[in-house]
From TrEMBL:
GO molecular function: ATP binding; ATP hydrolysis activity; lyase activity
Domain ABC transporter: from-to ranges: 11-256
InterPro entries linked: AAA+_ATPase, ABC_transporter-like_ATP-bd, ABC_transporter-like_CS, P-loop_NTPase, PhnK
Record's keyword terms, sorted: ATP-binding, Cell inner membrane, Cell membrane, Lyase, Membrane, Nucleotide-binding
Origin organism lineage: Bacteria, Pseudomonadati, Pseudomonadota, Betaproteobacteria, Burkholderiales
Protein's name in the database: Phosphonate C-P lyase system protein PhnK
SMART domains: AAA
Ligase in keyword set: no
GO biological process, alphabetically ordered: organic phosphonate catabolic process
Record flagged with keyword Transmembrane: no
NCBIfam families: CP_lyasePhnK
Name of a matching Pfam family: ABC_tran
Length: 262
């Protein structure tokens, strides 16, 4: 997968560190993500990839390092010192966050349509007819039956709930979406449909996406660039095909070999 990478990154971290009681987490991470690109972070369970994602998304505070974000107006924000009201505004406008478990990213007491419409209402939308029309359109975009707009999330399968969560995150047209293992726990056939949908939507919306996954196949299908983590540190990074077809670090070589057919 190829992409023309702009010169100026959207999100940048230098020396980013998040430790728990001095142990685990991630340490000394340098990372850039550019407008319109999909960047995957891969590694085994415990490698620090989800900790890094949460630190980058400001869901957990970093202990050390710098973190900056460039807005659509070309303002460079220091995310470490950014006041909480501005952080909240960023999270509901420029950013999205897709949880591994859709139950954590949906409101289960309201309908599918309301789940999609709520982020728009948080940004000032009030016209009921337009909200419902937009929700219906997004249900169709993520391959859900728009006739089920008034049903609760519990009425949908796991894969459908994940697509509903994606619609809830993308309806505001964010510039950057964080995704934590978005296909984990789904059947293979459901995974394949969801991956195809993600690839279509990121390209269509020119959306930057930072995706954590333990699945090399997911990374190969979706990512323009790849970061490999082990024991909380980045051990290899580069263009996806380059890293997976010619891995340099022994750990990356082991990861790639583990998914090769016998």
């Amino acid at each position: 997968m190829s992409i023309s990478i702009p010169a100026v990154p959207l999100l940048s971290a230098r020396g980013l560190t998040r430790r728990y009681n001095g142990r685990g987490g991630c340490a000394g991470v340098d990372i850039d993500i550019y407008p319109g690109e999909v960047l995957c972070i891969v590694g085994e369970s415990g490698s620090g990839k989800s900790t890094l994602l949460n630190a980058l998304a400001l869901r957990t505070p970093a202990n050390e390092g710098t973190l900056t974000y460039r807005t659509a107006e070309h303002e460079l924000l220091d995310l470490v010192t950014l006041p909480m009201p501005r952080r909240r505004k960023l999270a509901r406008t420029d950013w999205g966050f897709v949880h591994q478990n859709a139950r954590d990213g949906l409101r289960h007491g309201v309908s599918a349509g309301a789940n999609i419409g709520e982020p728009l209402m948080a940004n000032g939308a009030r016209h009921y007819g337009k909200l419902r029309e937009t929700a219906s359109d997004w249900m169709s975009q993520v391959e859900l039956d728009a006739a089920r707009i008034d049903e609760l999330p519990a009425a949908f399968s796991g894969g459908m709930q994940q697509r509903l969560q994606i619609a809830r995150n993308l309806v505001t047209r964010p510039r950057l979406v964080f995704m934590d293992e978005p296909t984990a726990g789904l059947d293979v056939s459901v995974q394949a449909r969801l991956l195809d949908l993600l690839r279509t939507l990121t390209g269509k919306l020119h959306l930057a996406a930072l995706i954590v996954t333990h699945d090399i196949g997911v990374a190969r299908l979706l990512a323009h660039r790849l970061i490999v983590m082990k024991d909380g540190r980045v051990v290899e990074s580069g263009l996806t095909d380059q890293v997976l077809d010619d891995p340099q670090h022994p750990y990356t070589q082991t990861l790639v070999a583990s998914v090769l057919p016998a």
